[in-house]
Amino acid sequence: MDATSTILIADDDPGARLVLQRLLTREGHRVLMAQNGAEALRQSIEYTPDLLLLDVLMPEIDGFEVCRQLRNHARLREIPILLITSLGDQQSRVEGLSAGADGFITKLFDMAELLAHVRTITRLNRYRRLLSEQARFQRLIELSPEGIAIINEESRLLLVNPALVALLEVPSAGYLLGDTLLNYLHIAGLDRYRAGIRALMQETQQVWRIELDLISVNGHAIPAEISLGRFRDQNGAFAQVIIRDISERKRTEAQIYRQVSRLTSLHTIGVAITASLELPATLAILLDRLIEELHVDAASVLLFNPRTTMLETACNRGLPRDLAEVAICAEEGLAGMAFRSRQTVSLATFPSEMLISPRDQMLAAAFATYFAVPLQARDEIKGVLEILQRASFTPDEHWWTFLEALAMQAAIAIDTSSLFEDLRRTHAELKQSYDATIAGWSRALDLRDRETEGHSERVTELTLRLARWMGIPEDQIEHIRRGALLHDIGKMGVPDHILLKPGPLSVNEWAIMRQHPVYAFRWLSAIPFLQPALDIPYAHHERWDGSGYPRGLRGEQIPLAARIFAVVDVWDALRSDRPYRSAWTEEQTIAHLQSLAGTHFDPAAVAAFLDMIGQGRRE
């Protein structure tokens, strides 16, 4: 028995307990002691000793009763028990054996005889334990749901369990014993398997795990995870092989991969819908994803044209050109059926009695399976999504779920594009109305002030040329155009007797006249559409040196658009005939602008303007 063996001594004599303790401790045993029967039972239950040396004559509960109770205990009934007794009569021995004792030692024992008894019983106990463990191990192997085998260095099978027999679909374990595991591995995994065996047998690796396909005797491919562990005994080196069927895991992984891929596709389409309102581009992405994820041969989106009541191909993948160019009446054919009924049409084959339209007959000649899904958004039917396959097949639930999600996104894309087109058209119409109104205001002002008739249109055109010449971004040009047209809109608030006065204005009249930029600001700032155009009407009378009005802005405090316009405004005024003077010559006007650069005008704006008109003269 090894040094971890536990022996319980139960005796009411302290001297006897001490002698036995010293003797057995020297032998390397762990010794427990009890001084009566009740304590012997308690310690047996707590420690499960490997051997019990039990005195017969103890108070309260004698050794016979302790023995009987232990033999009736489910967990403790196999503990070896040696009765220590001074009773030598035959009846006592019979009673002890009947109680379950394994042997007797007299109180006046010979130490050598006692040790021989102990060694014999513990050796038998160890052997029984070994057999029990072996049986449990064998049972575990037999009950294991995973294939288990022992192989030698040549991969020959020396032991196999029922799970491996079932996995490889062989008649019995004997069919496999002596055969090589290599015969049941797919050729694609042989090199990796051999590399693992070499690493194990050469002791460069203790454990090896690999995934590959097994091939059963019936030719079925079985995805498997193979774990190899090396061990050695007196007969040489071997490997324990655990083979787990991972078919279900592979199916689950494939399903998860498909779901992730399809969710990614839906996200990509959603991003396309959000990022671009160009319907052809979005539908192209949608059909590309549909073909890839659903593994079909062709797909198309037919949109309903309310003007012609036809279903027209907006985008397609895989359809012959002659089919893609055919428009069909929304009341006819398979696509028309899906459109009218708002129900999916699913055909594993093309029934001849349903092939009424020429287009359906052409489809039936090229494809075997047909699906048509109505595209509906906000309770309005937008068109039909068609899916076609050259070979017959039956979609599963996941296929249908993804198709329905794609159809929903297609309908959203179509509806979003339609809403955007309506919005863009409305915006264009509104913009035209605004611009017409602005032009009307400008003409009305010119008609009121005969001296400046046509002035607004001329300065507007010239201001836009100068703005572009100076590199102002195009998205600001439209605001400059509106501001130029409306530059004197504030004069609508100046009384006629002041605005149309033929002679010089008084100080008070000038004060009123100089309020027209303020009037323009008050009127136009209340219109959000015209707020970006306020710079010119509000600031075109400001001067570079700060002497202008209405706010006395200086230098670059003055908005650039207003600085540009101020140069053009004076140029047009001087170059035009007025009742009180004739138009100046170009040379006179240029000299005047140059003289005011840095005081009245932004020098850079004057220089740019003169460069521009000079370039015009050269051309």
Task: Tell me what you see in this structure.
The protein is of the alpha+beta class and 619 residues long. The protein contains 23 helices and 16 strands. The strands form 3 sheets. It has a 6-stranded antiparallel beta sheet. A 5-stranded parallel beta sheet has the order 2-1-3-4-5, sandwiched between helices. β1, α1 and β2 form a beta-alpha-beta unit.
Report the C-alpha radius of gyration, rounded: 52 Å
Would you tell me the overall average pLDDT? 85
As laid out across the biggest beta sheet, the strand order is 13-12-11-16-15-14
Helix amount: 40-55%
Features:
619 residues, alpha+beta, six-stranded antiparallel sheet, five-stranded parallel sheet
Summarize the entry for a quick read.
The chain has 23 helices and 16 strands. With 619 residues, it is an alpha+beta fold.
Task: List the topology elements.
Blueprint (H helix, E strand, L loop, with lengths): L5 E5 L3 H13 L3 E5 L2 H11 L3 E5 L7 H9 L9 E5 L4 H10 L3 E4 L4 H33 L3 E5 L5 E4 L1 H6 L5 H4 L13 H12 L5 E9 L5 E13 L2 E10 L1 H29 L3 H16 L3 E8 L4 E8 L3 H4 L3 E2 L3 H9 L3 E3 L10 H9 L2 E9 L2 E10 L7 H52 L6 H15 L4 H12 L10 H4 L7 H7 L2 H9 L10 H5 L20 H16 L10 H11 L6 H16 L1
Parallel strand pairs: 1-2, 1-3, 3-4, 4-5
Antiparallel strand pairs: 6-7, 6-10, 8-9, 9-10, 11-12, 11-16, 12-13, 14-15, 15-16
